[in-house]
Amino acid sequence: MVDSCGECESCRKGEEQYCHHGHTGTYAAIDRYGQYTQGGYSTHIVVTEDFVVRIPDGIALDAAAPLLCAGITTYSPLRHWGAAPGKKVVVVGLGGLGHMAVKLAHAMGAEVTVLSQTLKKKEDGLKLGADHYYATSDPETFTTLANTFDLIVNTVNAKIDLNAYLSLLAVDGTLVNVGAPPEALPVQVFSLIPHRRSFAGSAIGGIRETQEMLDFCAEHRITPEIELISANQIDEAWERVLASDVRYRFVIDIGTMGKE
Fold this sequence. Notes:
Elements: H1 9-12, E1 27-30, E2 36-38, H2 61-80, E3 88-92, H3 96-107, E4 111-116, H4 122-128, E5 132-135, H5 140-144, E6 149-154, H6 162-166, E7 169-177, E8 198-201, H7 207-220, E9 226-229, H8 234-242, E10 249-252
Parallel strand pairs: 3-4, 3-6, 4-5, 6-7, 7-8, 9-10
Antiparallel strand pairs: 1-2
Helix pairs in contact: 2-3, 2-7
Cofactor: Zn(2+)
Keywords: Metal-binding, Oxidoreductase, Zinc
InterPro entries: ADH-like_C (IPR013149), ADH-like_N (IPR013154), CAD-like (IPR047109), GroES-like_sf (IPR011032), NAD(P)-bd_dom_sf (IPR036291)
């Protein structure tokens, strides 16, 4: 995000990501001058100072890069819905977004549970800060954990049975989507009504909150698990993404662009 109108209610509140006129994305968006933005895979970028954040000392640039995407995308809903000591938080999916959600929720003091299709990443999840890890392929999981959690952060981009996951929420619990599957996800209203549950969505954070997230990560020594690759490894990396063979974010060394 490199610009917004700066005048609407959301922008005045420091929530530029919800600009009423649409914020300007870093890459492939049309800016206020009618030009396409070309940041993201650049060696240099020009941006108004209101959209600059400071990378704290102690966070290397390669580790900082995913914080500006996965980091803020998961930090924002965790902060908004009050992940804190005494709260029980579920992270659905342990991928690029999910592994950051686990680290952040743990650092905020919440009791963290990971729900994944299988237990093959259980060891990773526990090392990252999860207190519990369950397989959603086991039907007993949804019976055992019914009416338990305050917040569920769904990070997956695949279609899931939302009603089954909503059944895991306690009274006044919220399921928030940060993953964005292309197809519709049906919700039965009686998955919500009897326990006053909520189903929500969340985007990235505003610039102020992004800086807060970076400072929080520096304070708690939180960085993503990354694999640094050169430009000539991008095709191979993409195939590994499709095969779910990533632990847990690829970062491209932009200095290798245009080199063999």
